[in-house]
Structure formats: C-alpha cells, structure tokens
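Appendix B, example 12.
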Amino acid sequence: MMMNVSHALIMILTPSKCKLAPWVTKENRVARYCRKYLKDLVDEKTYRRILPTGSQPGKIYGMAKNHKPNCPLRPVLSAVNTPEYYLAKWLEQNIKPYYISEYSVPSTSAFVEELSHIKPMPSDVLVSFDIKSLYTKVPLTEVINDIATKVYSQSAPSPFFVNSGISEEVFKNMLQTCSESIFLYKDSVYKQHDGLSMGSPLAPLMANWFVAKIEDQIFKRNISCAPKFYRRYDVFAVFNSTADRDSFFKILNNEHPNLEFTMETDRNLPFLDVSVSMGNGKYRTQVYRKPTNTGVVMNFNCNAPLKWKQSLINCLLLRAFRNSSDFCSFCLEVETLRSILKRNAYPDRFINRTVSDFVSKYAVNEQDFKLKKLESSTKKPQLVVKEFDEVYLKMPYVGKPSTKLHRRINIQMRQYKLWVKAAYNTTKTGSYFNLKSPCSYLFESNVVYKFTCSRDENISYIGETRRQLFQRIIEHNGKDKNSAIFDHMFNCRGCMDVTNIAKSFKILQKCKRSNLYSLESMMICKNRPNLNNKLGPNKGTFPLTLYR
C-alpha cells in the first residue's frame, strides 16, 4: 500500500523549507535510534557506517519482464543512501542467523546436488509454483511480530538482541521504520505503508521468513498429498501423482489470504538457471536460457581488460560444470558457449585455450564427472604466504596505456614490499542515461560546491559537504558565524537583497565521501577563490598522501 505524500516537495528551492522533506525528517529519526541504542553496542567503524548522513529519497524504476506476455514492469526501488538503508543492512545481517528453513535452497549448484539424490519414478509429476507479487503482499505487522517473538525467545539460537539493551518494542519500531520506504516517482513523493519494496535490504529476508512460516504450518500437519521433493527459491516440487499435485496446490492457495500461487507442470521444467527433466532412471539437469535470451555478452573488441574476457568464459564454463548432471550435458553446453562467443567476436584460439585450461584445472572427464563436480563446490581456498602486501588501486581503463601504467607502478612499489593490483573501471553505456526521477540539487550530498556573489562574479568560495547541500547553505546564511560566506553576505548589499540565497550556490562535482577533501583541495588550487582565505596562504589546500 502506497500513499502520495506530496507533489510539491520536489519543487522546493529554499533551504529552510527543505527541512520539511519526509526523508530528511526520517533521517533525524533513524539517527536518534542509532545514537541511543547502537553507539555503545557496535564498534566505531560500524556505527559511523550505520548513522545516516546526507540521505536521499529512494528512486523507483521499472524492469521489463520481457519473457512474459505484454512485457509487464517489475517495480524496483533504488534504496542506496536512503535514511534507513545501512541500519536495515545491519538488522538483516544480525537477524539472518535466526532464520531457519529446511525447504529454501541457497544456490543452483546446491539444488542440482540435492536433486541428484532423488530417484525418479514413472508416475512422478514435476511442478513449478510461483507466488504472484510476493513482496507487495507480505503483511508487515504480522512478519515483524513473528521475527520479534523468535529473536527474543528463550530458545533463540543467539542471545544477541536479548543482551543488546534494545527492547522488543524498540526492535519492532526499527523494523517498521526500515521497511516503510519513501521514494520518488514522476515528481511526487510516495510512502509505502505495507508490503515490501524490491531493493530494500530487509525485503528478501522478511519475504522468505513469511513464506517459510507458511511452509512449516503446512508440512507440520503431515498431509498425505505432500510432495516427495520440495525446494524453494521459486518453488520446485516432485509429486507422486497429479491428484497429489492438485490437492497440494489447493492447500497452498488457502493457507493465507495474501498468498496466491500459480502452477506450471511439464516433463521438462526450468528452475533458477537449470532445466530439469527425467530420463534413464535419473533427473537430468542442464543450463537453461529463457526464450528471450539474446546471446549478447561482453564483445571481444570492447574496451575492457583481456582478463575480464577470460574471466567471463571461465564463469560461464563453471556454471555449465556445476549445473550439468552429466558429462554429456556439460559438453553440449560448451558447444553452445562456443557458438555464443563466436557471435561476440571471440577468436577460436582464445576460446580453445581458455576451455582447455578450465578442463585441466578441474580435471573434467567422463569417468568421474560427478566426483570432480562435488570437489569443485566443496574445495576451500588454500592460504598462501605472499612475499609482498597486496593493495588495490582504482584506475580508468583506456587500453594499453593503462596496463603500462600499472606495470610501472608495480616496478616502483617493489622497494616498499607492495604489490599493486589494478581495479579497472570502464565507461558503460548505461552511465549516459538516467531513468530515475531527479531530485533538487539542494538535497544532493557528498559534493564540492561553489558560492558566487550575486553582485560580483569574481568573488567566490569553494567548499565541500557530506550532508545535504541545503544544510550547509543554512549554516553559511547565519548559523555558522565563522563562515567566510556569512562574513561576505553580511557586508554585501547585493547578497543581502537576494530572496533565495540558494541560487548563489552550485554543485561543481559529486564524488565518493572518501574523495571529498582531495577533490575540494584540487578545485581550490585550480580556481583560487578569494573567499577561501581563512585556511592559510594555500587557501585551504593541503598535500595529498598516496602511500604511507
């Protein structure tokens, strides 16, 4: 259930009115929770990460389900940097140990392994159940109460919350606050009161908790029509007969008014990214691709490191190895991959060498295919004592010059016993488009900004802020008496006559919080604004330390 909070808030352009924005008031509420209950409970680093600063509203957008009729849109919430985002992640991390379900499956390879132990019968019926609009149908209050009861019970797997000093009522309020999303859509602000948003950190856990509770209620009754095999990501089940299938389907749909299941049945069914079929007295699995799959992968001629292209092939081969039930299925998938890679300009020699290296690494052969597959999924990485300390350096990839620079840096760093690994970043086509609803620049955070006098353009100031820009403008406008901008405006008739001082501020660049001081320093050094005179002769710049 969603409520339209305000259509006009996006049009607010005065800093004083920005305080009324619902995500700003929510940030203050979440910050109070953090200061009161978490400051002494978690370490300093975790506390600083959870405490919201410079929060943004969520942005909702649609992902097309092009494999379904009429191509419906799946609403997805971009919740990163919302007031509750990091608190929700912390709650999810600490609640997860209390979630126990014997019917959920963590991965495709685990599903394939479990299915391999089931012996099919000629009368077996394969069924796939799907829940319609699960996230929006989750009853929040019911699930929150159930989680709180489990977490604060005497039989809980861990006493973390019981000993945390957070009361059960406060815990419920935290979950409620973190589950009620505030987001933008077409210049309007909405608040979701019930159900869950896809994109919220708590949504998968709470949705799984809700469905797991329903499953437990059903299977504890020892019904005669229960499936012989039942696993949920979506739901895949094997029944002894069609009568059992139909009876169980009816029970599923009558168990809770919010849940509505659909059913698909066939001798060959997709589940996650595998196709399951029966044949030769066993269940056979192989990699599944939807009919709408275009076969487009990273092109060999694109501007990206060669290791990325090699890793792409290895990733696809590993999926084929783990998802294939036998050597024959694996070989068929390898041939399919060869065809796809050739259509994306990969040379035969490059494909053959990568496939050969993969087969040698995992010792893939027909005789003990299942054994080698099991070893690959259970093998733990070995600890290696290295001569040099490894550090990562993020750098743009522009082809051979990037690799040469990386090599030269490593030559220089050897004397310091450092081995620098390049974390390349490339420009993606999607970065040129933004399909999410825009927000006023006054709500932007982690920015370097510039103030320009309304009377004289040569008078300026450059600063940075981790908070929303409007809060820093309010401080410059009188709250911070030591501000150089306040001193100027107090003595400048032109600035005193401006009705909306926010128009004198503009954002120069937005960046990561860790880069703010460096970027501000470089901007000041480049532009030499004359109001930056309170921080010494260098006008606020300072030397940057790359390595210590």
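DSSP finds 19 helices and 17 strands in the chain. The longest helix spans residues 306-323.
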